[in-house]
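Quick one:
INPUT:
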């Protein structure tokens, strides 16, 4: 039985249509309120979802604010340059192995949270996010889907200046400012999706469609990522994998996020997230680093020209 697991103001809840059902109440206390703990009993989530039609909901989704479905993942993996068209627009080579970094869990926020922008170089990246439901080590590609609890939408918000801090650059901090990880609107179980390997993904800034692609175009798909990551480290229940973004980000044309911009991210079968950008006090470090970022891009272009 398909389920949708939400984080309603810090409490785990199942979703049906426009209603939510508090998990602790629904299970008569058998399951707790912690959204992370809920991932440890997926069969119970499926079984409880089957009963929703005959139960009174706790409330309407429109009356509450959702948090990130997995507010405190043990590990938060993210993959760069995982769509050919995004690698090309970034003027970077297509990686031979997954290019992995982390988003620190403190950046995770819900599907309607404001994105706090503190420089002129903050960018959007619509992404499919997979959540681990069964941990393990050395997971084979053909078994990988059995280790996924479900999928949701993510925005890998990135301060492009800070992203290139130091040499060699480390992406982690530039992608982990507070609010840089909107996730949601809820975790959707795989059996809810007719074709989980190929979902249409779209990102609009205000009314303009900037990214539109299909997750079937991932260079390293979810099974490949699970196999790769679990060869290096143990995957644990609740870990999240941000699978990368397609072409159309703001970077190539300096189309960065401004105060008041509304980022609308939709993935087929998973719903929509709507996050508004709010400019806060300048983060001087990010402003200082932005020109350096341009140098990095120019150098990459020169390198490409030289090798052509
Ligand atoms: Zn990304």
């Amino acid at each position: 039985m398909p389920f949708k697991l939400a984080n309603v103001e810090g409490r785990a809840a199942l979703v049906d249509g426009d209603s939510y059902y508090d998990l602790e109440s629904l299970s008569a206390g058998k399951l707790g309120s912690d959204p992370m703990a809920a991932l440890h009993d997926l069969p119970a989530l499926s079984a409880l979802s089957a009963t929703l039609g005959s139960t009174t909901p706790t409330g309407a989704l429109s009356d509450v604010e959702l948090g990130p479905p997995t507010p405190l993942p043990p590990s938060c993996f993210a993959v760069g340059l995982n769509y050919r068209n995004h690698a090309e627009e970034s003027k970077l080579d297509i990686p031979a192995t997954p290019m992995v970094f982390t988003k620190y869990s403190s950046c995770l926020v819900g599907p309607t949270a404001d994105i706090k922008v503190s420089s002129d170089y903050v960018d959007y990246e619509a992404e499919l996010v997979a959540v681990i439901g069964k941990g393990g080590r050395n997971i084979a590609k053909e078994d990988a889907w059995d280790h996924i609890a479900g999928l949701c939408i993510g925005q890998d918000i990135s301060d492009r200046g800070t992203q290139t801090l130091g040499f060699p650059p480390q992406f982690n901090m530039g992608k982990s400012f507070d609010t840089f990880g909107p996730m949601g609107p809820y975790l959707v179980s795989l059996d809810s999706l007719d074709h989980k390997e190929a979902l249409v993904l779209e990102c609009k800034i205000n009314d303009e469609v900037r990214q539109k692609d299909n997750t079937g175009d991932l260079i390293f798909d979810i099974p490949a990522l699970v196999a790769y990551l679990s060869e290096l480290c143990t995957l644990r229940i609740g870990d999240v994998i941000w699978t990368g973004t397609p072409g159309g980000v703001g970077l190539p044309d300096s189309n960065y996020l401004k105060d008041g911009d509304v980022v609308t991210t939709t993935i087929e079968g998973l719903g929509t997230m709507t996050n508004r950008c709010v400019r806060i006090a300048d983060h001087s470090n990010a402003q200082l680093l932005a020109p350096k970022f341009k140098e990095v891009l120019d150098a990459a272009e020169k390198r490409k020209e030289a090798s052509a």
